[in-house]
Amino acid sequence: MDPELEAFVALFPPATLDDPITERANFAKLAASVPRPDTSGMVVEDRTAPGEPAVPVRIYRPYEALGAIVWLHGGGWVMGDRETEHPWAARLAEASGAVVISVEYRLAPENPFPAAFDDVYTVLNWAADHAGELGVSPDRIAIGGHSAGGGLAAATALRARDEGGPRICFQLLNQPGLDDRLESWSARRFTDTPWMNRAKAAAMWRYYLDGRPAPSPYAAPSRATDLAGLPPAYVASAELCPNRDENIDYAVRLLRAGVSVELHQWPGTFHGSQAILSAEVSRRQIEELGAVLRRALAG
C-alpha cells in the first residue's frame, strides 16, 4: 500500500454495511470532513429534473464550459446524495471545465433496482433536452461516476445504446461496481481491505438487487454479452479493491468490442482512497479524472 495512504487506514471506519441507515449518517459525517472545494469559478445551482419521480440534481457550471457530464456518486447504492458528493463534483468541474450534473438518485434498500437506474436515465434525457440552457452542445454530454455510480454510468450507456437514447460522448468510470457475482480473483481474495472488502461488496449488491441475482446487464454491466457501439471510456481501478479485476476485465472487453479505452490501474491504492487528499497519489487521481474528461469533451 502507498505509505501516505497506509497512515490513514486506522482512521477509517470498519468496512461493514450491516445497517444502511446508520452507515448513511456515518458516510455523511466522513464527507463533511473533506476540505471544502473552491467554487468561485463556477455557478452552483440545485435543480430538479422532471420525471416520475422527479430527480434532484446539483449543477456545477464553469463560466466557459467545454461540455457536460452526468455524474453519479458512490456509496454502494445505499449511501450518498448531492451534499456528500459536493467536494468531488466541484473538483471535477474545476479540473475539467465541464458542467457537472450531480444526481441524487434513489437509494436501496428502500428503492432497489431499477429505481436509481431509472433516475439516472431521467437526468440524462433531461440534460440532452436542456443542453442549450446548460450552455453545451447536446453531442458533448458524457456520463460517469465513482464506485456504485460508475456502475450506474456504465449501465446507462448500455441503455442509451439499446434504446437509441441520448448520444453519450464518453464514459468516465472510476472504480465502478459492475459484477454482482463477485467471482473474480480480487473479489474472492480481498476480505480485509480498507473501506471496501468482499463482505461489504456482497452486502451492497444484496441491498441494490433486493437479494436476487442481477436480472439484466442494466443491473450489473459485466453481465452484458455485447459491448460494441458503446462510447469511448476511461476506466480506473484501485489495486487493493474487490472491484479491481472486474474493472480491468470490462475495459479489456470494451477494447475487444472496438471501443476506445484508457485504463489506469493505480498501484498501492484502495477503494475510495482518493478521498485522502494529503496523499500525492490521490491528488494525481483527481487531477487525471479532470484532465481525461477535459480532453474527451474537447476532442
Automatic annotation (TrEMBL):
UniProt KW keywords: Hydrolase
What the entry lists under InterPro entries is as follows:
AB_hydrolase_3, AB_hydrolase_fold, GDXG_lipolytic_enzyme
Which SUPFAM superfamilies does the record match to this protein?
alpha/beta-Hydrolases
Family annotation (Pfam families)? Abhydrolase_3
Q: Is NADP tagged as a keyword?
A: no
Q: Which domain of life is it from?
A: Bacteria
Domain Alpha/beta hydrolase fold-3: from-to ranges: 69-273
Query: Which protein is depicted?
Result: Esterase
